[in-house]
Amino acid sequence: MPPRIFISYRRDDAAADAGRLADHLNRRFGKGQVFLDIDTIDPGTDFVRVLHDSLQETAAVLVVIGQRWTSVQGTSGTRRLDDANDFVRLEVEAALNRSILVVPVLVQGAPMPRAADLPASLASLATRQAFTLDHAEFHEDADRLCDRLAAAIAIHGSSRSIVQRWWPVAAVAAVLMLGAAAYIAMHRPNDVPSTGLTSTATTSGTASSPATGTAGSADGPGHVTGTAGTDAAAKAKRAEELAAEASAQRRRNQFADALVTLGQARDLAPTSPSIRAAQEDAAMELIRNARVENEKSSFGDVIKPALTVVDTALPSATGARRADLLAHTGWATFLLWRDGDRRLNPSDMYREALSIDPGNPYANAMLAHWTLFQDHDQVSDAAKLFDTALKEGRAHDVVRTLQWAAYGNTNEPEAAAERVRLANAMRVAGEKLNVRQQQTLWAPYYFTMPPTREKDRQVLIDAVSPDDHIATLGWAFDEIAAKDDSRRQSIRYYVALLNAKAGRTDQATTDLRALQKELVQEHASGSLRDAVEAALTRLQPGSGARRSR
User: Fold this and answer.
1) Cβ atoms of residues 549 and 11 within 8 Å
2) Tens of pLDDT along 490-547?
3) What is the pTM of this model?
4) Which of 120, 138, 162 is the last residue of a domain?
5) Angle at 456 (CA atoms; ends 424, 533), nearest 5 degrees
6) Rounded to an integer, what distance in angstroms lies between the CA atom of residue 295 and that of residue 152?
7) What are the start-end ranges of the H helices in 378-484?
8) Range of 103's domain?
9) What pLDDT digit, counting tens, does each position of 447-465 carry?
């Protein structure tokens, strides 16, 4: 089938974001339904004709807009958008002139362009409903965008029916309801004991236990023996059972459920320090992992129960524990900022936490994330904060997650280099990349491949030593490259560049020539073939360049 979703983007503005979005759409709708890069057409082909042919059966165009989308300049010093032959302008004009869905997708915290900032032919773009992908949880936002696209353009097989998606949840809920009903039936206060005896009102000198309906004897004012003591022991045992249940829920990332379970345990054992600590830990986990499931909910709604626990715990907390809670108050503030309250500033809480515990991993890593979220140029400052967070030796996985999120939220070349350094450090430490981290790491290799991106590509190449870099490429991508010829060839290209950097010029030249021959035999065209030819040109005199986007 022809592509159904067309992604328009500007390389100098939001290439990595467009690539991440394309990967997400490919997984959801299938590669045949997504068209990312119009400039892979063969040289000499009429761009406008191919563009219009591509849009012929396109159901939606996503216009990815970053901070520089309206301001990027051409070689003449004028805005590219003001050039009638600008590829991005041509794409958007063609889409707006057709009866198809056009969605501005805002990334990097970019605002929606005003009609006054656009050429007259693009002015109507300013009236289209935009969608924002500008935060650490890129995939959750992208999922919501996919849901809207599936409903709007009705791609066959793009989404399951409500019954298909929710019947497993409904089945689990039914089982839980049946279990709860059985539990209640077995534990009602006035149930008949197994002996068949009914509970009765007591006479003088005895007291009826409200928990069991049986009698216990009174040994003077304020002291009840027998069933009262048994009741206390039963409550303590039940609190322990609930704490164990909550621990299992936390291991399954069911943080909201764990918080409810621990609240029940806390009611039964209000003075238990272990249950109190577990409740605070679950609250912080919920804040860190908060997700918004649909457009009608907000982060404020999701984190409210957890924030109540944290706020209650703060007044009596001291030392590193107080710093942990303050840092999570800061992250909650960040989420509320994302909800739209731009008066908030989470860095105040992060810095207060650091004044108590300078090495606190949560406060350092969260402040690093906020620093880079606010200013994409502050990569080195963020990296120092992350380094401090890692030295603490705890919350390692949390720090790693925030590192990938922060460096993945910016297209700055130095941020791409930090991703390579991060991956290299994980390789050396024996850690593993998850799928999302692999995608984030791969994006800059893909988008700095064209000859026109030589400066950015060099920053990437220089991130770590050539041999470490080669080892990291293999560690990160060998498994998926074995199933993807295109990626395998791209990795061979980068390995050749790294060998050249290490002084192994003959080996690099041999490997590049072999790759070039392979691409010619496959009749391949596009960025990789151009990149290989340009690399051979640098090593030995050869051929030319290619247009920029």
Assistant:
1) yes
2) 999 999 999 999 999 999 999 999 999 998 888 766 778 889 999 999 887 544 434 3
3) 0.61
4) 162
5) 100
6) 16
7) 379-391, 396-408, 413-428, 435-447, 454-461, 466-481
8) 5-162
9) 888 888 899 999 999 999 9
